[in-house]
Specification:
This protein is mainly alpha-helical. It folds into 2 domains: 1-140, no CATH class; 144-245, no CATH class. The chain has helices at 9-16, 20-26, 36-41, 46-61, 64-70, 75-81, 90-111, 117-136, 152-163, 169-179, 182-198, 205-219, 227-235. Helix 1 (9-16) packs parallel to helix 8 and helix 7 (90-111) runs antiparallel to helix 8. The two termini are 30 Å apart. The model is unreliable at 19-26 and 29-35 (pLDDT under 50).
């Protein structure tokens, strides 16, 4: 299966940022930029394609788990990202926000200049998604890092047991490398939850109780029976080229 990066730029942007059909249905009419006739007459701006591809690559690199889900790259770079779990620190979130703001500023300049119709759609989709990311920043902790449906205690386990690919011995090695990072990511999540609590952003009791139950259930089995171990054994049972070590 080809990586997203190997597909057209417009397809890659649509997959990375937001489904184009949804974005274009919700974008304000002004975001569609130039009239259709003018856009259709414009020639493709190769410089925009170069910038957009580079921005998309950097955006994916900032989210290794997203890179795994999309298999955006190939070769050594994809293999490297497949060994990492996305940081949950404030510093990392600030880095992503800075990228989003920088991308918005650059997109405004691109959209004020010559782009063909396809490029304007790509730019509008990117801008819509990045603008939402920036607008949502003050409310990030309102989602609660340990929510019962999408909290880190659920998301990390689901990612490791279902999303991380296990196609060969190298994937297994990458899984083990990620497994060593789970404790660090959970510590980062705890630090974020404590910071949110210091600002009176505390989940309702029923969310806390459910999240605590999920964590207790995860920790209850013996290490050899933990889902991160048993799922690895089940998913690699018929995989060739593995040694007991």
């Amino acid at each position: 299966m080809p990586s997203i990066r190997q597909r057209s730029l417009r397809a890659a942007i649509g997959a990375l940022f937001i489904p184009a059909a949804i974005a274009m249905a919700t974008l304000p009419s002004a975001a569609h930029a130039a009239p259709v006739a003018k856009a259709a007459a414009a020639k493709p701006n190769k410089a925009f394609d170069t910038w957009a591809e580079k921005f998309a690559e950097d955006w994916v690199r900032a989210n290794p788990q997203g890179a795994t889900s999309t298999q955006y790259f190939g070769g050594a770079e994809q293999a490297k990202l497949d060994r990492e779990l996305t940081p949950l620190t404030r510093a990392h979130r600030q880095k992503v926000q800075a990228m989003a703001r920088g991308g918005l500023a650059r997109l405004d300049k691109w959209m004020a200049g010559p782009l063909d119709e396809s490029q304007r759609i790509s730019a509008a989709v990117m801008r819509w998604s990045l603008q939402n990311a920036v607008a949502n920043e003050p409310f990030e902790d309102h989602a609660f890092i340990f929510s019962q449906f999408s909290g880190v205690q659920v998301g990390l386990v689901n990612f490791m047991t279902t999303t991380h690919p296990l196609r060969n011995a190298a994937d297994v090695d990458s899984y083990l490398a990620r497994l060593e990072q789970v404790g660090t990511r959970m510590d980062e999540a705890l630090a974020r939850a404590r910071d949110a609590a210091s600002r009176s952003l505390i989940p309702p009791r029923f969310i806390l109780e459910r999240a605590q139950f999920q964590v207790d259930s995860f920790l209850k089995p013996a290490p050899a029976e933990n889902v991160l171990v048993t799922s690895l054994a089940q998913r690699t049972e018929k995989l060739d080229g593995l040694s007991p070590d």
